[in-house]
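Hi everyone,

Forwarding the result from last night's run.
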Amino acid sequence: MRRTTMKAPANFLRITKPTWSATIAPGTYWIGDPCYAFTSDDEAWQEVLGSCEHFRKPVGSVIVRDEPEPHLVAAFPTWHGDGEYEDTEGYRYSVDSGLIGIMRIETAVRFGAPTALLAQGRVVEFVKEQTIEWEAGRFIFGTIEIDTVPHSDDSDA
């Protein structure tokens, strides 16, 4: 049996990194591991996880009776799962669910313990619409960037 090797055309397959982008309205938001925003209501956290297939889809929600709008959470996986990650402004984020996300402060306060929110994440105010982006472990929330992708240390070269 004779085997031949074929070269695939350049346009046959293009591998790209998974990316996601959206625009959020002006307002006050909490950024951090969303599990910390649901410390006082595990049932609500389970509803959020179920609504987005444990963040295989980037936006989860929880509906509270007698409240006009669902509470939304956008979250994405970090490159290495749990750990501590620093943003470009020096804030640190503890991660225990392998996720970093963003939600309106009203959602975080409604379901979370204030001490956990302040210790484990960050409150930010956006005065105009902002773009939020995720690309394979790199997070951008307006001007805030959190890179969870490991980089080689060039100083050892």
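The mean pLDDT is 86.

Cheers,
N.
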